[in-house]
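Sanity check

After download, print the first record. It should look like this:
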Amino acid sequence: MTKKKDMSFFFRFCSPQCLTLIGIFLGMLSWIVESFMHSQIFYDKQLKFIDHILYPNIHELWMRLTIVTLFVCFGVYAQRIVKALQQAEMEIHQVNRELSQIFDTAADGMRVIDKNFNTLRVNTTFLQLAKVSYQGIEGLKCYEVFKGASCNTELCPMVRIQHGAERIEYDAIKIRRDGREIPCIVTATPFHDSNGELIGIVENFKDISDRKKIEEELQSSHEQLRKITSHLEVAREQERRAMAREIHDELGQSLTSLKMDIHWLRRQLSGKEPKIKEKISDMDKQLDHTVHTVQRLSAELRPCLLDDLGLSAAIEWQANKVHDRLGISIDIVSIPEDITLNEPCNITLFRIFQEALTNIARHSGASQVEILLLQKRDRITLNVKDNGRGITEAQINDPNSLGLIGMRERAGLLNGAMAIEQNQKGPGTTVFLSIPYQQVEGCEYAENSDC
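Expected structure tokens:
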């Protein structure tokens, strides 16, 4: 350790140019020493000491020049080595300063822990996050300062990294010294020395309290919107039922009364006034058309089959309507044959099926549709498969596809799942709907519903 400090002191305060001068000085000194030695050993009155310095013989001159050259070359080479070492030391110090600045000013809390769970270093953000001071963490283990559920267990990052893990990232609730819980994203990475030996770990703590708060607010808003949607769906279905009943009962009775009056007038004429009789026949036909229109509007608002005979019958009736109107071949399989659920669940499944058929009629150009309605022990599934032109991923995720969004929202009201995807074999699209049967049976469709 002392030798390293001495060398560092030497390199720091010794100018590289000095080494060249030292080499020259040593060369000159060797020249003088060599001359002195020759003047003493080979004493000659004719050649004095100064003459040995200035006028050496050829052999001696060659030897002295060789020695001087070696000393000068050593000085120049040492100058370059020292200059390179000083430059490397400056770069190391610069890197250390940059790393220290990055560590100390990082937006996330960071700490370095050794294998014995002692804290080697922390940054300012960690101190603020854990609400401690530098003095407050001295002599304490890491799990005594900012502890979590994984501390002192096999899930501890230090334990896992000692067992071979490379990088660990997980969500955790960390507890400060004052007892407050801080939700964090924790990242732990191994920390090695210059020989590659594991020293400890570097832990990074990202405070996600604001994100958690926003997520909770979004979740609360989503739940409120879902409740509002549920309430609106119930209100709309109740309104449709009331309108359908009113149209069927009031208008139906009025139209029936008018039809009876027309038949009475026709009997009273008894062949007289053919023009009037012809007009009455036209009125009778128009009245029949109006009766059919009223029945259609009433059924579209609220299919009476859904209330009277159940879901399977209503789906078959809707499929027959599409077949009669467009000529699309529709095969229906219902297991069991008669599936009857409570009112809100019946209407939700029926509306999703109705929207699926509408999309097929409008956009797919399909000639064949296969429908599978299956009631298992714990789930109800509905598959609607067509052989049309199919649907793209962009169309599935299009925010303007209000029909698809409405189908997903209706499924979500029953805690169900709905998927729309291209057929794996052949052209066309499959709509898959799955709803937990216990959920359907208990009917948590809407808190404001009657079931």
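If your output differs, re-run the checksum step. Summary of this record's structure: The radius of gyration is 47 Å.
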